[in-house]
Amino acid sequence: MSVNNSNSTLEAEQTVSTVLPRSPWNSQLAYLRALFRAKKALDRIEAEAAQSDR
């Protein structure tokens, strides 16, 4: 790998890191909260359906 090639790779990596969110934890936490709410709602619907079948 030449020096010029490694410089362009470094610049590309720096560009990618600035494009990505600064705090991936917050977005992952929001995703997990939404997923948990959806599961909770589906569990509630499933429980109501099971009760109405009896």
Descriptive overview:
The structure is a single chain. With 54 residues, the chain is mostly helical. It has a domain at 23-54. The protein has two helices and no strands. The protein has helices spanning 3-19, 24-53. The longest helix has 30 residues, at 24-53. It is rod-shaped and about 70 Å long.
What is this entry, summarized?
By secondary structure, the chain is mainly alpha-helical. 87% of the residues lie in helices and 0% in strands. The mean pLDDT is 77.
Layout: helices, strands, pairs:
Layout: H1 3-19, H2 24-53
Oligomeric composition of the shown chains: single chain
Structural class designation: mainly alpha
Q: What separation lies between the terminal Cα atoms?
A: 71 Å
Share of β-strand residues:
under 5%
Number of helices: 2
Total number of strands: 0
Mean pLDDT: 77
Which regions have little confidence, pLDDT < 50, spanning 5+ residues? none
Integer-rounded radius of gyration = 23 Å
Series of H and E elements: HH
Q: Mind summarizing the main beta sheet?
A: none
Structural shape? rod-shaped
Helix content bin: over 70%
